[in-house]
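Fold in C-alpha cells:
===
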Amino acid sequence: MKSVITREGIYFLFIVTIILFGSVFRAVNQMMLLASLMCCVPLFITWRIGRVSLKNVVVRRSLPPRIFAGEPFVVQIEAENIRKRKVFSFGTWSAVAVDRIRPRRNEQNGKKKPEKGYEPAVYFEYIPEGGSVRKSYAGRLPQRGKYRAGPFSIQTKFPFGFFRHRFEQAESNSERNYFFVYPKIGNIHTGWLKQYRKLLGRSQERNLRPSRISGELLGIRTWQQGDAKRWIHWRASARHNELYVRQFTMRQNRDCAVILDLFQPKEVQTAADESIQRENFELAVSFAATLFSKTFSRNGIRLFFTTSRKEDDILSGMSSLPLTTAVLEILALAEPKADDALPEKLMRLIPSIGPDADVILVSPCPFAKYAEERFKDIDSSARLRTALRRLKIVDTSDTHLDSYFTIE
C-alpha cells in the first residue's frame, strides 16, 4: 500500500509551518502547542485511518458475455469489506475502485511501446464491515481486439484528504481477466439479396418439398389426420363437399461457407491510401461478423468459416451460439497479411462442403484486379478452377457497398 500527500495536505503543512516558525520567533508557547497539535493529530489520524480502511477491501468485476466495438456495455463492480465486525472497528468510507483496461494488440504485432488504455473509476460512499456494495460503470470501446482487464487499484483520501492511500489488488485466477471486443455489427439490406439472390443458403432453384408448417403456399390437398384446423381451405372444401387444407413448402437448407480474405495489396503510396485500405478491411471484418451474428443466427444451417491465412483452421458446425462466438473471436483478432494462402485454403475447404454449398468470399480489395497474380497455377488445377466458379465475392472496396451493407 502506498500513501502520498495530496495538494490539500501540502497546503495544510504550509499553514502549520508558518504558525510554527511564527511561534518560535515570537516565543509564544500557545502557538507552538497549536502547531504541534495541528501537525501530529490530523496528519496521523488521516494516515492511519486511511490505510486501515483499505486493508480488507476486495473488489470483483463481472464482464458482459459479449462486447461489440462501438456499442455501450455495462460492467458490474462489487466491493466487499472482509473485516469482521468488532467493537472498535469501522467500515470503509469514500473508496474509489479504479479498473484498468488495456488492449493486447501490442503483443500480437510485436510492438514494445504500450498503447494507452482506459481507467474507469467507481466511487463507493461506504462499505460496511462484513458487507458488500455493488455498483457499475458503462463504457464503449471503439476498436475490436483482445483486452486485458485489471488489476484494480483501490484509493481513498478519507477522512481529511491530506493523504491519498492506494492499494494495488492482486489479480485473481478465478476472474475473467481477458475479454474480446467483437467487430462492429451492421445491417445487411435487400440489395445483397438482389445481387446474389440467396440468403441463409436458400435459392429459387432449390427443390421444394411439402410441409405442414407455415411457409410458401404450394397448393391444396385433402384433409389428413393431424392437420391444423386453421389451414382448412373453406372455399375448396365447400366446392368439393369435403375438407381441403392448404399445403405449404419448406425449403431445404444447404451448407454455407464464408472466407475472410486477409490479402493486402502492396500498392500503398500515401497515408490516405493506407487509411482507405484499413477502412475497407474493417468493413470486410464487420460484414463477416454481421453474417454470423444476424443472418446465420437461426438453426438448421451448416456453416463453415475460415480466413485466407494458412495457420487458421476451418471452423464448421450447425449454426449456434458457440460457433458464432468462436468466429467472432477470430474476427476480433484478424489483421491484414501480405502473404497469400487463399488458393491453398480453397483446396482444403471445397472437399469439406457439399457440392451445392454457397461459398462467400469477403474481400477488402477488388478480387478480379489481383486474381491473375494470386492464382498463377489455376490452369494446372481443375479443382481450383471449379472452386473459383463457386465463389460469391463481396468486395468492401466497392462504391456500391452501401446499397446492401451499412454500419450505424
